[in-house]
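User: Design a sequence. Structure:
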């Protein structure tokens, strides 16, 4: 009897062990699947954070479309650290349950050395980079103007000896103090020099005193997203999307007034609100009213235009009232938002009376413009290796240059003819052909007129 139960007991024990291992493996596999699901873009954007439904559409067509949400918002951390980091977001889960107004800015981004700098190393030597952009007018031919810009991304091999490069802003320790949550109104900038000294630049035009800065602002150490804001899911100006479509041929420029018609549709669609599913038929009706299907079937140009505008309007639409692409500033450059001019505006002054350099050529060369019909910008005749005049080294040179010209300017730049139509160095459509956000420049002379001479 004593001998008979042992095999049975062993069999039961082995069976129990095998079942236990199977359950453990199943639980582990289920846990891995659940963990991966929690870190997926679908979970982040539709299950957890449905409060901002447009970000997934912007992300899908952006430069980081293959980067998972958690790689930026949590960082590329070891698994246990990532689990701990997720606990910091429990309060947001509660807010999602009880009701949460759509946020206008991220408050939980990890330090960028845990995310962005896993791929992008700003301190590495970068060559200058070239960007070419095409913009189109609202005339019948949708006349094209091309802008060519050489960006001083970092410490490249071909550089102006005085330019420090764009990535100086994060290789150097720079703190700033902003009045608003989106960091558009910056009252104070503090530069920590390599020798241990600091240089403070304060803007006295924002309605607070230097002593009030600690109480009325929040301080930040400057990092990548202070310029590359919303880079993971940027909401682009829909007019720029139309320009891209014209440049690629998605919208054919043979279609009369293509750009003007596109802008008219954008204006009409601006007030449409709803989810993507709700908006699709509304946008289709809007486009159909402008380009009836009967016209599309017989006119290929109209058909292409309608298809492109359906895509552009849906990509640019928002669900909540009070929000559009302008609600989310993109601070790379200074075309639609102040961007660089939040600090480089000629108004942030230090104790010596110097401003944060307001000199375009610190970050890029002067734009080269070519417009159909022969209008174009003119390069300076100055040898790039030649030392700049002392006046050009003034920190506020770009604000003052138009009202402080000298006859000697013509030695390098040719005849001084200020304007926006091209044909001379001082008539650059890219510089003088528009107003810049947050910049109040000195009053320029009328286009083509020669500014007053200052021989002193």
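Assistant: Done.
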């Amino acid at each position: 009897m004593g001998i008979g139960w042992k095999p049975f007991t062993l069999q039961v024990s082995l069976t129990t062990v095998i079942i236990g291992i199977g359950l453990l493996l199943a639980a582990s596999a289920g846990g891995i699947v659940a963990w991966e699901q929690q870190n997926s873009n679908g979970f982040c954007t539709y299950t957890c954070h449905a409060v901002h439904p447009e970000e997934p559409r912007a992300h899908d067509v952006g430069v980081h479309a293959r980067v998972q949400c958690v790689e930026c918002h949590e960082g590329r951390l070891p698994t246990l650290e990532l689990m701990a980091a997720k606990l910091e977001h429990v309060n947001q889960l509660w807010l999602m349950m009880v009701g949460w107004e759509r946020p206008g800015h991220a408050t939980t981004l990890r330090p960028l050395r845990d995310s962005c700098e896993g791929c992008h190393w700003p301190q590495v030597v970068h060559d200058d980079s070239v960007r070419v952009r095409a913009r189109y007018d609202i005339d019948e031919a949708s006349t094209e103007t091309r802008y060519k810009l050489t960006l001083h991304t970092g410490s490249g091999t071909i550089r102006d000896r005085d330019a420090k490069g764009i990535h100086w802003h994060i290789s150097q320790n720079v703190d700033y103090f902003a009045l608003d949550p989106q960091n558009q109104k910056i009252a104070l900038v503090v530069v920590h020099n390599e020798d241990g000294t600091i240089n403070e630049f304060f803007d006295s035009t924002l309605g607070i005193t230097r002593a009030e800065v600690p109480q009325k602002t929040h301080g930040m150490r400057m990092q990548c997203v202070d310029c590359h804001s919303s880079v993971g899911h940027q909401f682009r100006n829909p007019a720029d999307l139309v320009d891209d479509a014209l440049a690629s041929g998605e919208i054919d420029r043979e279609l009369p007034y293509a750009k003007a018609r596109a802008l008219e549709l954008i204006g009409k669609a601006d007030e449409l609100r709803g989810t993507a599913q709700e908006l699709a038929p509304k946008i289709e009706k809007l486009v159909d009213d402008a380009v009836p299907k009967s016209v599309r079937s017989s006119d290929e140009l109209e058909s292409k235009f309608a298809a492109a505008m359906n895509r552009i309007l849906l990509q640019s639409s928002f669900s909540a009232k009070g929000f559009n692409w302008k609600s989310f500033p993109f601070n790379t450059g200074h075309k639609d938002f102040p961007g660089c001019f939040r600090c480089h505006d000629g108004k942030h002054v230090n104790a010596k009376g110097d401003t944060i350099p307001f000199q375009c050529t610190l970050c890029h060369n002067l734009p080269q413009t070519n417009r159909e019909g022969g209008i174009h910008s003119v390069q300076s005749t100055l040898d790039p290796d030649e030392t700049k005049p002392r006046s050009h080294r003034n920190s506020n040179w770009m604000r003052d240059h138009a009202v402080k010209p000298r006859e000697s300017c013509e030695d390098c730049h040719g005849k001084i003819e200020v304007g926006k139509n091209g044909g001379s160095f001082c008539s650059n459509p890219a510089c003088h052909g528009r107003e810049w956000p947050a910049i109040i420049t000195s009053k320029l002379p009328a286009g083509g007129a020669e500014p007053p001479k200052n021989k002193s």
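The radius of gyration is 28 Å. The chain has three domains: 41-118, 147-229+330-432, 238-327.
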